[in-house]
Write a structure and sequence with these properties.
This protein has 19 helices and 16 strands. It is α/β, with parallel strands linked by helices. It folds into 3 domains: about 120 residues, Orthogonal Bundle (Fumarate Reductase Iron-sulfur Protein, Chain B, domain 2), CATH 1.10.1060; about 160 residues, 3-Layer(bba) Sandwich (FAD/NAD(P)-binding domain); about 160 residues, 3-Layer(bba) Sandwich (FAD/NAD(P)-binding domain).
């Protein structure tokens, strides 16, 4: 390492955030970059552990100590080479990944972890600025044709890897833009869409063919898919949201989070909707305390909401790890995102009882406080706390309670694919579905998860497809990916 005592000499320093009063007025990313000196100091905090748990914490198996060392020595060009060796899209993960690698960093035992995610973003943006990241079409083609269904992070990763193996790759996207969740679900202030377009443009120059507004199984038959391609990678998302089954659910003003977030992202692209979902001057209630809920929170702030309240069914997590949640496990602790820093209220252990309104529109959410208790058999059950009922003004209710499984109507039903107990596409050890030459990856295969895990899944699926088509493969195995692992 360039400075073996860096972890003792330098404290962790995150990217500085723009002032709240300024950033809520626009949709730009909220962080200021580091200087080269700051990046070098932060990278030097990496101890090059004998057993780097950060590698294990990362589903991609990123070579984190290697590129930290290179940054600390100022060798940026080699650093991006090491970063790209395991991660197709560090400009995405460096912005929106919750960084399980940092949770596993050895410094977490008694200090603040290395700022791995910020270093990752700094490397890739430096590489783009220097012109080091260029289209890399394969030298030869195999004449094998592969279709990738879905252009989210899993589909994009699979497509790029398959293209590098020399196959002719066509990506089918049912929406009007490429990128899936990256383009439609994540707000601009977390991931500006020019970042996604920059990578898509590179992939097009590498020879990948993208087709939008094609919903395979509906306006493009599975028979054509069978006839035109040697292998198919199913990389759709887990798109069926968990619903709220209470009285008043049919009132106007109640929407799924992704409807709301997608509409705002479409608006940035000049696409307008007839049924406008907007938070301006409204009392907004968000049901769900995860990242999607926080995205709705930040979006509501920027749209000028009167008030925003985020409610979570589960109890509030502790501020520090419990003894039952030791390092290097993912820490189940209270997290405060940039959106929470911008305002709004949070409440935990809350269950929605019903919704009421006037003239067919929601105006009020009726809730009760709950607790989780053990019954005589030791099973945990939910109980309402007596006399804890309360009401909240609610002109706009956003359901951000997670997703159940991929959409079955259309593609999955047409192919008559076997599903697992959770409704995801069931695959064998080679990620092939119950139908020959059809493989599955990403959320469609293992359920809702992290963007970094989707990329890992897409890479591993591409390797399996290449092996199936050619009898051997030179594509790298994803060391950190496991379909059983989940953060």
């Amino acid at each position: 390492m360039a400075k073996i005592t860096g972890f003792k000499e330098f404290k962790r320093q995150n990217f500085k955030r723009r002032e709240v009063k300024d950033r809520v007025k626009d949709w730009k990313e909220i962080y200021f970059p580091w200087t080269e000196k700051q990046a070098g100091q932060q990278a030097s905090r990496c101890m090059d552990c004998g057993v780097p748990f950060c590698n294990n914490g990362c589903p991609l198996g990123n070579l984190i100590p290697d590129w930290n060392d290179l940054v600390s020595k100022g060798d940026w060009k080699k650093a991006i080479s090491q970063l790209h060796a395991t991660n197709n899209f560090p400009e995405f993960t460096g912005r929106i990944c919750p960084a399980p690698c940092e949770a596993s960093c050895t410094l977490n035992i008694n200090s603040d972890p290395v700022a791995i995610e910020f270093i990752e973003k700094t490397i890739v943006e430096r590489a783009f600025e220097e012109g080091w990241i260029k289209p890399m079409p394969p030298e030869t083609r195999t004449n094998k044709k592969v279709a990738v269904i879905g252009s989210g992070p899993a589909g994009l990763a699979a497509a790029q890897q398959l293209n590098r193996a020399g196959h002719n790759v066509t990506v089918f996207e049912r929406d009007n833009v490429v990128g899936g969740l990256l383009s439609l679900g994540i707000p601009e202030f977390k991931l500006e869409k020019w970042v996604v377009k920059r990578r898509i443009d590179l992939m097009k120059k590498e020879g990948i063919n993208f087709k939008t507004n094609i919903n395979v199984g509906e306006n493009y038959s599975t028979e054509k898919l069978d006839n035109n391609f040697d292998a198919i990678c199913l990389a759709g998302g887990s798109t069926i949201p968990r619903d709220l089954e209470v009285e008043g659910r049919d009132l106007k003003g109640i929407h799924y989070a992704m409807e709301y977030l997608t509409q705002q992202n479409n608006y940035h692209e000049g696409i307008h909707h007839e049924d406008v979902i907007h938070a301006e001057d409204k009392h907004v209630v968000i049901l769900g305390g995860g990242d999607t809920g926080a995205d709705c929170l930040g979006t509501s702030h920027r749209q000028g909401a009167n008030s925003v309240t985020q409610l979570e069914l589960m109890s509030a997590p502790p501020n520090e790890r419990s003894i039952y949640n030791p390092w290097p496990e993912w820490p189940l602790i209270m997290r405060t995102s940039s959106a929470h820093e911008e305002g709004g209220e949070r409440d935990y252990s809350v269950m929605t009882k019903k919704l009421s309104g006037e003239n067919g529109r929601v105006t009020t959410l009726h809730a009760v406080k709950i607790e989780f208790v053990k019954d005589t058999d030791g099973n945990t059950k939910l109980e309402e706390i007596p006399n804890s009922e309360f009401e909240i003004k609610a002109d706009l209710v956003l359901l951000a309670m997670g997703f159940l499984h991929p959409q079955k109507k259309g593609l999955i039903q047409s192919l008559k694919l076997e599903l697992d107990s959770k409704g995801n596409v069931k695959t064998d050890q080679n990620m092939m579905s119950s139908k020959n030459k059809y493989f599955a990856c990403g959320d469609m295969n293992h359920g809702q998860s992290l963007v970094v895990r989707a990329i890992a899944s897409g890479r591993e699926c591409a390797r399996n497809i290449d092996q199936s088509l050619m009898g051997s493969t030179k594509l790298p195995k994803v060391r950190g990916f496991s379909r059983a692992s989940q953060v």
